[in-house]
Amino acid sequence: MELMEAMKTRHSVRQYTDRPIPAEAAAALRAEIDACNRAGGLHIQLVTDEPAAFGGRMAHYGKFSNVRNYIALIGPKGQALDEKLGYYGERIALRAQQLGLNTCWVALTYSRGKSRCTVAPGEKLVCVLTVGYGSTQGVPHKSKPMDAVCRSDEPTPDWFRRGAEAALFAPTAMNQQKFLLTRTGEKVTAKATGGFYSKIDLGIVKYHFELGSGRDSSVWA
Ligand SMILES: Cc1cc2nc3c(=O)[nH]c(=O)nc-3n(C[C@H](O)[C@H](O)[C@H](O)COP(=O)(O)O)c2cc1C
Fold first, then answer.
1. Of all protein residues, whose CA lies closest to atom 5 belonging to ligand 1?
2. What is the mean pLDDT of the chain?
3. What total of structural domains would you count in the chain?
4. Dihedral angle at the C-alpha atoms of 208, 209, 215, 219, nearest 10 degrees?
5. How far is the CA of 47 from the centre of ligand 1 (A)?
6. What digits encode the pLDDT tens for the residues 146-188?
7. What dihedral do alpha carbons 142, 146, 151, 157 form, nearest 10°?
């Protein structure tokens, strides 16, 4: 599955079947996580066969069921951490989708204290991604119109339009889509416009924009 297809078919999945993640898929996921950790100086970890983090009341109210695997998004504390984990976390989520697995970003509705991961001194567990075989493939989220999230003087080039379209497929906390992409010539400014977890959202959105537009990170002003 191409990354663009993975981006369009990924939807949050909160209910999972008992099917365990096969060894080859887990190895492929770990390879992607290792690459992201190296590139971003992060400490992201795959946790398998661990029902406790999603076994309590929070997860129940959040409509999660049978979550036994998750990816703990961890890195060194600092200003840039949320956005960076958004960017690399989404890269991992789309890799999982390519491997036939389903995911959901979770910042709130799980038990942070029960999660089995290693947070070294000076590091922070920001949020997790559930992962496994979903009972369904989820459903597409409602989306803002493109002109609500981007600014571009006419004529708008195709690459910017494709990037903005891809950004609207990005998962955001509570589906808030509180971001603004502004093009000035060949450069784009991406801004979080407030809301909970909007720095994480911004990292996710930037990863999608790069994929859709075909530009690399040098596109950011
Ligand atoms: C940073 C972030 C935090 C999230 N936290 C939660 C959460 O605590 N509980 C939950 O059920 N969903 C959570 N979500 C999932 C969003 O509700 C979901 O991504 C959004 O509604 C868009 O739907 P989609 O992922 O199907 O495209 C979170 C998403 C993001 C990006």
1. 106
2. 97
3. 2
4. -130
5. 19
6. 999 999 999 999 999 999 999 999 999 999 999 999 999 999 9
7. 140
